[in-house]
Amino acid sequence: MEPFAAVRAELQTVSASTEEHPSKSSPTSLDSYDLDTCYNRYLYFYQLPLLKEPQTINSFRQYLIQNNAIHLVHYLLITVNSDKTEAHVYLPSDLDILPNHHIFSMTHDSHDIPLRSKPSLPITPLIPSTSPTSEYYNNNQDEPLNLSICTHNVCGYNTDLKQQVWENYCLTNNLHIISITETKIPQENAHTKLQKSRNFTYYWSCTNSTKAGTALMIQNWLKPHVHKISTFSGYAVAIDILFKHDFRFRIISVYLPCDNSQLRLEVQNTVIQWLQSAVSNNLQPIIIGDFNATSDNLQSTSIKYKLLQYLQYNNMYDLAAHTQSSINTWNNSRYSSCIDYIWSNHSILRYLNSYYSDDPNTSTQSDHQILISSWTFPYAFTGK
Q1: How far is CA 301 from CA 265, 275, 305, 307, in A?
Q2: Which entry of 30, 169, 323, 375 is 20 to 30 Å from 287 by CA?
Q3: CATH topology (fold) of 132-377
Q4: Bridge-partner residues for 368, per DSSP?
Q5: Is 288 within 8 Å of 341 (Cβ atoms)?
Q6: Has residue 67 got a pLDDT over 70?
Q7: How many C-beta atoms lie closer than 10 Å to residue 123's C-beta?
């Protein structure tokens, strides 16, 4: 997958021999500055010194770094026009893109493209209200069902900017069903935070704990296939999503607490009941999320491992182990471990195309890896 600067390009090291050295300007008088330029609008918004000199993508990034705004470099949203003669930088509140522009690519686009703004031009939605996937399946019902199922601990999901960045990542990588964990969204804010999306429907389980929260995001074209929703407040959510040809799934997103053993046991018992009910109702269970436990100590009698032990002994498979691609999914400066998983029922493993992990540095900046699985289910629309 190609890293995109619009989903927050990875920060590059500043060299002392950089050819362009944009000079700092004083913000005391605005008359001598062109506030119509996109880069000065951006600087003014963040109360940074404005610029008189024309800027390129590279010089503007270097300028932010020199002004101790490294955190903003991670979240720059930049697009380039079709002939690559001008670029545009957006404010966090901008939800529209200039026409004939595409997301800036660190790999294929020059860093010397000048930053310019043409605010008089009409604008079109940055994220289309109908995804290409939706149009494809509406017009190609004879095609197999291709699903990408993902899980990611986002380490907080309270800002509009982070939600936009993550949704852009999911659309760019054509992810259809996504578990996000440790959202930290209070229950009273869930409706406001999670119902603004143009392309995704959220099924959430929130609590007022600052260490909890999970949600399942699905692309909107899948919504008619959802038939039942179950939640355990703050720690688990399940949806039943039904197709033809016996492709009936129960997708469970879980975030198991690590600091309350009694609560952890209650969540595990509830999820195990959901799994048992799925099998009884001929639903294929897929469980994804942050278990806050490794799978290398499953002989332990500790209740910490109850859910993982149940999965192992009931025909469920950890996709990382199954594909021999296990990695440490979480790390900090001192420790690392594998605590995030995608587990599926053994009977659908033959439909698995791939399983892999991706780095979150260009999206959420989380300390957890992004886990992605892709599947192909034949006749899911026609039932042949």
Answers
A1: 13, 21, 8, 12
A2: 169
A3: Deoxyribonuclease I; Chain A (3.60.10)
A4: 330
A5: yes
A6: yes
A7: 14
